[in-house]
Design a protein that fits this description.
1 helix; alpha+beta; 3 strands; single chain; 58 residues
């Protein structure tokens, strides 16, 4: 099994609004029908908006 994911957007974790911009972006993608979620990438200190598996856009 392959853990495939697509990163839709990156947001710096050090921003004054924290994860809010990423959460707002993910919410907008969910309204479009994508199963977008926010994860933290500790290596790059960024919030990533991702779509897992077969839900990823082409």
């Amino acid at each position: 099994m392959v853990n495939r994911r697509t990163v839709l957007e990156r947001f710096p974790a050090g921003g004054p609004r924290g994860s809010w911009p990423a959460e707002e972006f993910a919410h907008a993608r969910r309204l479009e029908g994508l199963l977008a979620e926010v994860v933290m990438d500790l290596t790059t200190d960024a919030f990533l908006v991702i779509v897992r598996g077969d839900d990823a856009p082409e």
